[in-house]
Amino acid sequence: MSRRRKDKKKRKALKEDQQTYFESVDAAESEVEESFSVAEPDETEIEQFAGNLALEEIQENEEPALESDTESQIPGDRWLSRNRENLLLGILVLYVLLLGLGTAGELFEIEWVLNLPIFK
Predict the structure, then answer these.
(1) CB atoms within 10 A of CB 105
(2) Nearest alpha-carbon partner for 119 in 96, 103, 92
């Protein structure tokens, strides 16, 4: 088979691939348009939405429920649970810095580092 025929077949296959790609893109776009199309709301939907808003307003006006016994009563516990990862990371960084300082003091015989109370 000549080179020209091979090139022609490759171009034809490429055009077919492009055609199928464009068809699939068009199909996907039409599906997206159908799923996100906005229609005028029915009266029942409006009434249902208004009813939900009224329920939310009623619930906001009610007294808040007491905390359950399973929740912790320690004041700083919420702060601790939110920042636990940051605290652990800070402790890890501090540990690595002290380890590096002690190692440098030992290797280079730096007296003021070796005389620190943490390294005695």
Answers:
(1) 17
(2) 103
**Which residues have CB under 8 Å from 101's CB, separation 6+?**
113
DSSP code string of 7-55: HHHHHHHHHHHHHHHHHHHHHHHHHHHHHT---PPPHHHHHHHHHHHHH
Indicate the SS3 state at residue 5: helix
Query: pLDDT digit of tens for each residue in the chain (120 aa)?
Result: 688 888 888 899 999 999 999 999 888 888 887 777 666 667 777 777 677 666 666 666 665 555 555 555 677 788 888 899 999 999 999 999 999 999 999 999 999 999 999 888
119: nearest Cα among 12, 71, 39, 106: 106
Task: Report how far Cα 97 is from the mean position of its chain's Cα atoms.
Answer: 30
Is-contact 119 102, C-beta < 8 A? yes
Task: Estimate to the nearest angstrom the gap between the alpha carbon of 103 and the chain centroid.
Answer: 38
Mapping DSSP to helix (H, G, I), strand (E, B) and coil, where does residue 84 land?
A: helix
